[in-house]
Amino acid sequence: MKVRLFVAALLWVPAGAFAQPAPTFSKDVAPLLNQHCVTCHRPGEMAPMSLLTYQQARPWAKAIKEKVALGVMPPWHSDAPRGTFVNDRRLTDDEKSTIVRWVDSGAPEGNSKDLPSPPKFAEGWAIGTPDVVLKMATAFEVPASGTIPYKLFTIPTNFTEDRWVQALEIRPGERSVVHHVLAFVHDPSGKREREAFTVVVPEMPRRQESEGGGSRGEGPGTLIATTAPGTNAMRFEPGTALRIPAGATITFQIHYTANGKAASDQTAIGMVFAKQPPREEVRTSAFMNPLLSLPAGQADETVPSAIQFNQDVHITAIFPHTHLRGKSWEYRLVYPDGRTQVVLSVPHYDFNWQTYYIFAAPVAAPKGSRLEAVAHYDNSANNPSNPDPTITVRWGQQTWQEMQYTGINYTVDGAAPAVTAERQ
Question: What are phi and psi of 413, to 5 degrees?
């Protein structure tokens, strides 16, 4: 009889009595924000609000839930399986559930003793404290209105020997008016390393093909770093590094955008040096299709580009770039034996979150392989970001024009670094 009463009592327990306790900010949510969000959501960074403390995060609880549930935040646009890219920002399903349940439970703070130690950031830098910071000699005064042509600013490194860089980051002085920055290095010796690939789509004049399709340039030297809306700082894997020649100069190509208020910008680049000589040299480059033409009103226009490798290489990172009409990308590697492999798919490209996709396992591209890049554009009125769907759009530097541009980082198999790195 007692057993029956006990069983009956269990059956009468209210629903949810054995459910998991509600997550709290201190114990469950703060660790997730620290790991995935506060790199951007902190004072002085690109995000519009700080999420470092409960008092800062609580007013945004419903918005956080909505963005997390929809997969909008943290921003990530490749559909590759988890583990493909080392900088994959996506939350796991369990992590999403924790945040959603926290908000649905009233977003409780919990016990402050459960708070993890706050993350430590070098002041203003995602790469940690740089070994050297190179800054524009004087600030550029950005007007309140008008179209501003791309500006070039050259900075001496004053390096007395070749330097090997493990990480580098471009920091705009005034983010509100800096759309993007490309950093180029110029070797004073005049030497220009031949590219390990040739641009094959579009077909370019023979002179440009002999120079690597012009791809290591499109600027005053060799491209080494990029920052654009949402672009991550670049860190190279241990054993690999980027070489900056002795006596080199760094040139910034900066795209300023007037926003109705005059501003002053003094952009800088920070570098962390490798602590030991690298096994492999990272090469940074780009290829593009400057012949694009997007008909007015066309909702799905395809623009291809492609390169063919003339050496055995490993691709370490890919950076797709279009402007406001770009909607998706696909990169397909075609091997010499005819096999194909999709190495990067970005089905929902977002101009406001442009990413270097850094491979967890660099992709082998044997000599003779082709890397085919296909971008899709929406130049119709259905694209809410389209500045003007009534015009045919061609290549141009300004945001209302378009680009089909790919940054690429790679190493050449069996190629020893050009010089021996020396520590400071």
Answer: -60, 130
